[in-house]
Amino acid sequence: MRSFPFLILLFLFLSCGKKSLPSSQTNIKHPQTDEYATTINETDLLDVAIDVPIEISLNKIYFNQSESQFAEGKHSECGVSVLIDESYDFKLIGDLLEIRSEQGKWRKYLRISGESNSLIGIWINKTIEGSKLILSRMTFVSEERMILRNHCES
Fold first, then answer.
1. What is the pTM for the complete model shown?
2. Does the pLDDT of residue 80 top 60, yes or no?
């Protein structure tokens, strides 16, 4: 009998603060969560890369073989390609590399690794085309080999 008041106090303590929801409110959806999930499902995250033999002569990069890779998402596509004997003009200014494709388009790349006054290393560029973000990375493994990689988000 002495423990009976203790049990009542314990029961009251454990049941305090618990509110029961009516059964009609237990299936509430949170619109922020659903909207976030939909946004994630509607984003394309695509990654493509090619490894090509090159030749560097004066201020030109020549591609010694044709290579291409493309990925297609739900709403966009991402690609990288070069043709044999295609060339890029370049200007190397410290940690800035300006590249001009045969189509005449200039892009600026920033060095993230490698030694100054050398092409050898990793260079990155960020471009926005419409609603697509393209992160390009050029890796000069040597003066005879380059890896081109594009990561596209849209």
1. 0.70
2. yes
